[in-house]
Amino acid sequence: MSLLPFALPEGFLAHADRDARWAEWVAAVPRRLAHALEAWELTVDGPPVHGHTAVVVPVLSDGQPAVLKAGWPYEEPRQEWLALRHWDGRGAVRLLAADPSANVLLLERLGATDLRAVGAIEACEVVAGLYGALHVPAPARLDRLSELITRWTDDLAALPRSAPFPRRLVEQAVHLGRAFASDPATDGTLVHTDLHDENVLAGGRAPWIAIDPQPLSGDPHYEPAPMLWNRWDEVLAARDPRFAIRRRFHTLVDVAGLDEQRARDWVVVREAHNAMWAIEDADPERVTAAVTIIKAVQD
To answer: For 104-149, what is each residue's pLDDT tens digit?
Structure first.
């Protein structure tokens, strides 16, 4: 007999085919959701939906609409609850309850409309406006950006010279990454790190609310990059793709009042790391996109 009064989406169950760790997590999700439904006295209120690293179930909590989320319990997403508790609804979805050991969260229910419903530049203005609410002193328990940058920069430095990514960009990103890793300003601010169009939803208590953080104790200037690499089909369709990227970048920087050069340097570092992982995944289109973005912000 199923532990749940509904079937999990086939697309979510297919995540088990990725590797043994994914299979173990997918197999555990029904038990974790069933435990939360009982412990928090929730009523299922609709079919579940899923993304790349989570499944979300509409529920009623004391008669009020909410969602139950079971997320990937590794790496940055495992600390989502900590960031949401710290924000307490300021700029981000409100956390109603959490089981951190299972990475299961009870969240307020927001609208289904995300920022893809508006133009790319307007979306950048909205996201830049959210930075002000989200960028507060980080909780002491949060993982530090400097530690991750140290590890990823070492990995990038070891990239073979034969790799399909310009060596001068590798060397530039390694130099910048090592400088950031030793810079005290790289840590200390609560940053979302994955704030883009699909992670901002319309909400009843505010026009737009951030969801799905992969939080770190970091640097606000680390934030803009995801708004440059998302909605990539629109960039490619533009008459001048590099201009389209630069327009997004400058909108984010200007509206948020960020230091342009520091934000630019972080884009270079983040995109070089993305290219490194894309090479590992044999994804040449993503490598090309990374090169395009790096060159665009430095033109």
So the answer is: 999 999 999 999 999 999 999 999 999 999 999 999 999 999 999 9
Residues 114, 194, 219, 265: which is the catalytic one?
194
Which CATH entry fits the domain spanning 115-298: 1.10.10.10, 3.90.1200.10, 3.10.25.10, 3.40.50.620? 3.90.1200.10
Using one digit for the tens of pLDDT, what is the confidence trace for 47-62?
Answer: 999 988 899 999 999 9
Strands (E), 128-255: 189-191, 200-202, 208-210, 216-218
Q: Say yes or no: domain 10-108 is CATH 3.30.200.20.
A: yes
Active site annotation includes 45: no
3-state secondary structure of 56: strand
Handedness of CA 117, 119, 124, 126 (dihedral sign): negative
- Measure the CA–CA gap between 20 and 122, rounded to whole angstroms: 42
